[in-house]
Fold this sequence. Notes:
Helix content is about 25%, strand content about 30%. By secondary structure, the protein is an alpha/beta fold. A hairpin with a 2-residue loop joins strand 2 (about 40-50) and strand 3. The relative contact order is 0.16. Residues about 1-20 have low confidence and may be disordered.
Amino acid sequence: MLGAAVLASCRPAADAPRDAEAYFLWAGVPAPPALAQADTVYVLAGEVRKERPDRFVPLRPHAPSAQGPEVWLVVRTETLVWDEGIYRRIERDLARWEGGVRLAGLQVDFDAPTRELDGYAGFMRDLRRRLPERYRLSITGLLDWSANADPAALAAVGEVVDEVVIQTYQGRHTIPGYAAYLAGLRRLPMPYRVGIVEDGGWREPPWLARDRNYRGTVVFLTRP
């Protein structure tokens, strides 16, 4: 739950930027008090695993409830081959979450390889077609997209999704040389946020705030 009682009982994220407006909440990670003032919270709801693409693995037994922040329902997936039941389950969960939060829509957390973005765009087009129009679509993306992706493939993805959260970390550590990769974010033809890991030593490049498509950071919380 993301309710007031939970928020009041947890420690703040120690290394999160003081002006951070968005957070990503993994299953099993407590919600820090900062979430009460956040503009946006991404909440991992479940997974689709490669060995069982016919099964949605729920990671939260209850729909969240929260006053204030906009909430994204996140599905982490290891495959783009989904059984029809996966789509139906996600749509039911979206409708259920709407009863307790200000729901933005659905985020798909998938490490789409840079050279396979055309196929990913096709998957997202199909997903967009299946979902009610009131739900927005968000995805996570790799730093490599900004440097090495084909511009036409990026544009195809950008035509379907409402935003991308570019991840600047692996595990619990910020990727070395991230600033050089970030310079390529100006190529992204869509609104984007930068995903940073808690306690990862992130420093925002001075030019980033001037990019018209930049929407701020998302702090991926890791403290148990």
